[in-house]
Hints:
- It comes from Flagellimonas chongwuensis.
- Pfam families: TPR_19, YaiO.
- Residues 178-349 form the YaiO beta-barrel domain.
- The protein is of the alpha+beta class.
- It folds into two domains: 58-158, Tetratricopeptide repeat domain (Serine Threonine Protein Phosphatase 5, Tetratricopeptide repeat, Alpha Horseshoe), CATH 1.25.40.10; 178-410, Beta Barrel (Porin), CATH 2.40.160.
- It has helices spanning 2-22, 25-37, 42-55, 60-72, 76-89, 94-106, 110-123, 128-140, 144-157, 162-171, and strands at 178-189, 197-208, 211-222, 225-234, 242-251, 260-270, 274-284, 288-300, 303-314, 317-329, 336-343, 364-375, 379-393, 396-410.
- A 14-stranded antiparallel β-barrel has the order 1-2-3-4-5-6-7-8-9-10-11-12-13-14.
- The radius of gyration is 29 Å and the shape is elongated.
Amino acid sequence: MRKQFWLYVFLFLTLGVWSQETVPVNEMYTMAREEAFEHKNYDKAIGFMEEVVKKAPENVDYAIFLGRLYTWDKQTDKARRILGATFKSNSEYEDAALAYASLEFWNQDSEKALEITNKGLQSHPDSENLLVLKAKVLMDLKRGQEASKTLNTALKYHPKSTNVRSLLQNMATGENLNEVGISYNFVDFKERFDQPWHLASLHYGRQTGIGPIFGRLNYGNRFGIGSTQFEMDFYPRISKTFYAYINGGISNDKAIFPEYRAGFSLYANLPAAFEVDAGFRMLQFDESSWTYTFGLGKYYKNYWFNLRTYLNAVDAEVADSYALTARYYFGGADDYFSVRVGTGFSPDNTSNNVLFNNTARLHSTNFALGYRNLLGQTHVVYVEASYDRIEFASDTFDDQYTVKLGYIKRF
Length: 411
């Protein structure tokens, strides 16, 4: 009986070894991928791939995948050994550079990651993956100008890349640290007012290590009366996923601008080039008006879409506003055509946010077309024309026409 037992054990072990040895390498590779991606069983996937690499040590893709498995399983030393050796003997192979550089970047060695991506780009200067990774590494090293330049290079090679365009827009940085700009709004009406409104703005902005900051002086002239407002905008980067918008302003005449204004939004960059945000705006006229805003954005090839809502409580009712914006990019982040359709009032629109100084729930429909273009390397021009059908008082409507012109100089 004892002899039979040990015979069964011997046969089981022999058959197990025999069956593993006879499994084709490509099937074991498929099994490892299934365990890693479908079951998240990295231990089992690593077991398969270690056997695969022993049987086919000349296959670079197998070695890289094993290195990635070690990386995901936080076996950093093993990952570094196999990926480093693979890259050293195959430095011209794009995926070898990408896997090794990603490992070092994820383990907070951005200088080493930059060195690897630069070597990889020598053989593959148009690689979208390597250029994007290099830009992320440069941002981690607080080298925003170089990151922006790298992404613009990627955009030239891959003009329809959703990933590159999304990153370039969300980094909110440029190759120049400073900018000054001027804009002018001409607002006319069909019947309600004899005189047009005039709004002008002068701003200065600077890219800082934690995000861009802007100071803006606004001048408004309505009904022949002038007023000024000073604002500041700040876009701090919180992490690789989150950044914020912070706004504050003060005016000397609440008949044209709110006496005080404040705003905050938190933005999150999500996978698949989605972006969501939520925040508030406060305008202080005779009384304070609080509006809550939510937005969803999506990059798709050369397009950007954004759906935004503003919710404001008026006399126990909710005054809601909605806007759908679409942009078509024909170049970099400053080169696009835009169209916007919406209903209601936006506290971010200086042309008519004075209407928030009203206890009635008013209505509006609007439509706008815009164009923005980078000229040379440092000059940006933009123009927007819009139409609003506005309710200025209960059941009293008029047509508002607005033309906005602007210019920005970066240095």
